């Protein structure tokens, strides 16, 4: 206790003697050394404050000499460093932010020439609860002259039961057509009967079932690379001329419209699971029958005119049920892709039934056991019911 007090008095006496001998510069140098240590504390505090992290900077505890000069210069150094660090951290943050913006802009891929500024989507506008429709003619784009036959459906055009009419302008490739669940890539141009072009795009992409009804029906008739001209009645487009459908936008024409559509490509998508039909338990009265005992009913008419033969390779979508309503087989196991196989390898009921179909047709087949698995072990027994869609075939 005594030695500690004596030591303190001796330090004070030495300091007073040094103050008389040393010049003003020496009196400043000592607290400046202490201020350098204090600056380390400021840097740690400033980094934690401006970086907003949860780290606690290391605090340097310094035992300052209890002199008036040390306290004064330490306080000045602390204030100066605090102000300076705030400024420099703000400056560095601004530089980093500007560099990040520059990097983001330079990293964006350049749009391709054929898609830039014109690629649209045919997905449904769920917020407006409206069907997906072609985009309006882009501003500033040259107008494509209307064909001479847009005013009325020509006599040589083909028609469906729905009222859709079409002509093939360019043949496609292959024999496999998209179905309503597929994603298609299209190009199109649309006109009103008076020859006004109201919509055009070199490339759009969307699901077939999300398009307007006339497009949904027509696109399923096409092959990749094919181009068709469609005359779409108002009920399959944007509404009748005298209709009051409020979901139709003002710029969308009512009544019949004409579209030139090219199917560029399409992508197979998984087919949603199907509910069990109500007539699997027994053959309905309105079903047709053959001499072999096979029964069928056409669920959707096809678009082709040719039929596969016993030696053809067919591509089909299908689902099969037993008479108790249990689904035992489906092409859904192929992730939505059609099953492709030689028809000669199928059960006799399939061979007979599929040869009656054309591309695009959907049939329900009631196949008696002798034309199905014929009591094969581990196979379903009794009559089987299949829904079959012929997607395509090759001889």
Which properties best describe this structure?
single chain, 395 residues, alpha+beta, Chitinase A, domain 3, 3 domains, 7-stranded mixed beta sheet, 7-stranded antiparallel beta sheet, 5 helices, 14 strands, disordered N terminus
Offer a concise description of the structure:
By secondary structure, the protein is an alpha+beta fold.
Spell out the blueprint of helices and strands.
Elements lengths: L1 H20 L2 H28 L16 H40 L12 E2 L36 E2 L5 E6 L12 E9 L5 E11 L5 H7 L7 E6 L24 E11 L20 E2 L5 E6 L12 E10 L4 E4 L8 E4 L5 H7 L7 E6 L16 E11 L1
Parallel strand pairs: 1-5
Antiparallel strand pairs: 2-3, 3-6, 4-5, 4-7, 6-7, 8-9, 9-13, 10-11, 10-12, 10-14, 13-14
Structure explained in plain terms:
The protein is α+β, with helices and mostly antiparallel strands and 395 residues long. It folds into three domains: 2-107, no CATH class; 120-267, Chitinase A, domain 3 (Roll); 288-394, Chitinase A, domain 3. The protein contains five helices and 14 strands. 25% of the residues are buried.
Helix share of residues? 25-40%
Mean of pLDDT: 75
Q: Which stretches of 5+ consecutive residues score pLDDT under 50?
A: 1-9, 34-44, 50-70, 105-132
The termini sit apart by: 113 Å
CATH overall fold name of the largest domain? Chitinase A, domain 3
Structural class: alpha+beta
Question: Shape from CA axes?
Answer: flat
- CATH class division of the largest domain: Alpha Beta
* Largest sheet: number of strands, sense, barrel closure: 7 strands, mixed
Put simply, the count of helices is 5
Instruction: Give the tally of β-strands.
Output: 14
How does CATH name the architecture of the largest domain?
Roll
Rg, Cα atoms, Å: 41 Å
Q: Tell me the fraction of residues in β-strands, as a range.
A: 15-25%
Q: Any idea how many domains?
A: 3
Sheet with most strands: strand arrangement = 1-5-4-7-6-3-2
**What is the H/E string?**
HHHEEEEEHEEEEEEEHEE
């Amino acid at each position: 206790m005594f030695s500690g007090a004596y030591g303190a008095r001796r330090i004070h006496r030495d300091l007073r003697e040094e103050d008389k001998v040393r010049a003003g510069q020496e009196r400043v140098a000592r607290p400046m050394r202490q201020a350098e240590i204090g600056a380390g504390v400021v840097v740690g505090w400033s980094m934690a404050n401006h970086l907003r992290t949860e780290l606690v900077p290391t605090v340097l505890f310094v035992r300052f000499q209890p002199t008036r000069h040390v306290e004064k210069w330490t306080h000045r150094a602390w204030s100066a460093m605090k102000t300076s660090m705030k400024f420099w951290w703000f400056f560095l943050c601004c530089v980093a932010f500007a560099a990040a913006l520059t990097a983001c802009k330079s990293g964006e891929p350049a749009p391709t020439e054929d898609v830039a500024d014109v690629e649209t989507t045919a997905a449904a506008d769920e917020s407006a609860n409206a069907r997906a429709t072609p985009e309006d003619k882009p501003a500033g784009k040259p107008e494509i002259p209307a064909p001479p036959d847009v005013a009325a459906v020509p006599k040589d055009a083909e028609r469906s039961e729905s009222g859709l009419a079409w002509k093939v302008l360019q043949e496609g490739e292959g024999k496999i057509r998209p179905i309503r669940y597929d994603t298609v890539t299209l190009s199109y141009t649309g006109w009103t009967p008076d020859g006004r072009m109201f919509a055009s795009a070199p490339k759009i992409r969307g699901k077939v079932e999300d398009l307007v009804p006339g497009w949904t029906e027509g696109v399923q008739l096409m092959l990749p690379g094919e181009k068709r001209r469609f005359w779409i009645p108002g009920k399959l487009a944007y509404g009748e001329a005298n209709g009051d459908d409020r979901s139709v936008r003002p710029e969308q024409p009512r009544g019949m419209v004409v579209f030139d559509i090219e199917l560029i490509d399409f992508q197979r998508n998984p087919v949603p699971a199907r509910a069990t039909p109500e007539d699997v338990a027994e053959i309905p009265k309105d079903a047709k029958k053959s001499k072999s005992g096979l029964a069928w009913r056409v669920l959707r008419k096809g678009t082709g005119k040719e039929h596969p033969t016993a030696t053809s390779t067919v591509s089909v979508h299908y689902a099969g049920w037993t008479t108790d309503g249990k689904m035992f087989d489906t092409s859904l196991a192929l992730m939505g892709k059609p099953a492709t196989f030689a028809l000669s390898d199928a059960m006799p009921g399939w061979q007979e039934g599929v040869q009656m179909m054309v591309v695009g047709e959907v049939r329900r087949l009631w196949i008696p056991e002798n034309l199905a698995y014929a009591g094969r072990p581990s196979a379903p027994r009794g009559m089987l019911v299949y829904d079959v869609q012929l997607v395509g075939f090759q001889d």
